[in-house]
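Table S2 (continued). Query chain:
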Amino acid sequence: MADGCSCQATVPASVVAAAWAQELGRAPAREDRFFTFVWDGGQWLGYGLRDGGVRGVYCPEHNARRTERSSEPSVGVSS
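Corresponding output:
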């Protein structure tokens, strides 16, 4: 993780692969992209590759933190 966190949450690779395959079945990916899936009561965020692979995932806690950071307004610096 970028913030130096060593997260102990895990999800089976087969679950992630099946979730991404289901996403690709709905609409084939034209580019690599994020996708969400629910597992064990939490919403995980994965990064799927257009070739069918998955690069990585965020656990529900880190997914929520990422979402929170991305929805915060950016503060500009005037010169």
